[in-house]
Structure formats: C-alpha cells, structure tokens
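Please, structure for the following, as tokens.
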Amino acid sequence: MPNAPASQCSILFGLRGPNLTLCAMEASGLAAIATAADLVRDGVLEAALAGGADEWIEEFDRAWDRLRSTYRGEPAGFPGPFSRGQRGFTPGEGAFFVVLESEDRARARGVAAWAEVAGESLTHAAGPAQGWPRAPDEPAEAFRLALSQAGVRPGDLGYVAASANGSRTLDAIEARALGLALGGDLRRIPVTSVKGAVGESGCASACAALVAALSVRDGSIPPVAGLTDPDTALGLDLVMDAARPVPVPTVLVSALGSGGSCAALVLARARSS
C-alpha cells in the first residue's frame, strides 16, 4: 500500500499527528516537505517528519523501457543531468527525511537548525500522463510563488537545486522555466542536481532538499555527478567537477514530476543556527 511507509514510521516512532502520503510522481518527496512546512508554520503541527521513500519496481522499469525514458548503458558512462549526451535517466531508490519544527521549539530543545523553509509552492502543469511538462510556464510559476512567499528576489539566490535527471525533455523544460522565473539573473546563479548521484525516483527530490539544507549549513554547493560535457545551449551556470562555495545561503529547490506535478522550496540560513 502506498501509505505503508508512513504508517510504519508512525508505529515505530510513536507519531500521532496527521499521517499523510502524497503521490506526485517524481515530485513526491519535495511535495511532502512543502506540505509539512506549511502545516508547522500554520501551527497545525508542532513538528513533522517529512520526506520520501521509494524502491525499484520491475513493472515500472519495464514501462520506462517501453517509453524509452531510461539510460541503459554502463553506470560509469551515465552522462548526468544537463549533459549534451543525454540519453534518459537512471532509476533510483532510497529514503530521505527531515524533521521540521518551529524556531522556538528547536531553540527550546537546544537544536541548531540546518536551514529554514522560507517559502514553498505546489502547482500542476499540462502534459502527458507519462511525460514531463510540455511547457515551462507552470514550473516557472511554482518557482515564482516560492520565491514570493520567501520574499527572495532571483538575484538573492545562492544557487538552484534542479530537478534535472538526464532526460533531454525535462532538462530543457526546466532550464526554460528557470529562465522565465529568474530572468536576467539566471546566468549568474549556479545550478546543480543530485540525480547524477542518486538517480530518479519519488524520493530523489527529498534528497535534493536534504542536500540543499546541508549546503546552506556548510556553505558548499555539490557538483552534478557525472557531468563532463554540459549542454551549453541551456544557458546555465552548471556546477561541475568540484564543489563551490555558496555565495548566498539561500537555495531554490525544484521538483518536476511526470504527469505535471511541480513543487518548489526556498531554503535559507536558519536564524538559530
């Protein structure tokens, strides 16, 4: 059952608040974190455990093969997100979770927060049921809404944690959406993606949020794993080869799902850190 992981976590850890399972395909993990952040901010919850869990399923693998969506070469040859030699994504699996709570509660527990959720948004784009959004407009709107809620201008971003996974269609649509949302600031904002390292899954976007929170805390932008031949036509400043310092501790995290789900999160340095 799709809600089995959340139910088992409730039993194991004695969690007694709302128990929600969100299904937004590849955007599921980030959508769960965005929803939980909203519930904590509104005072519905004192704290929440939120993220994503996913496993490799043979039936899905066969369906992706039929749609010619996945990369089937040697793992060492995967060109990575935003590559000129894009040939599809590598399926992944795993589990990535964060604890969300109010600043006052964290301070009372003596906890140094990794990052603050400054803004979040969820939208939906038109597109095929088994494909990525056809146009950049709705993803761009998700980015704009999250930035607006956070009170962050595009020029104030330290970097973008993109949803790109090595699919030519997704990576190109996301690059266009970032251009619409960030405008002239796009070329000077570093862009990276975790999916060269962890593959594509319903939980990869939660991994992106977790890594972004750690990067805000530690001041380092991770490079795109596997990227050696970037597609320069996308017009992005891609982080390659080695980590870079975070110029500003504010990150836009993107998650775009097949079927049209769009999620965005803005993370900033926590005041209590």
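Strands lie at 47-54, 94-101, 116-124, 159-161, 190-192, 220-221, 237-238, 244-245, 250-256, 261-268. Residues 2 and 180 are 35 Å apart (CA to CA).
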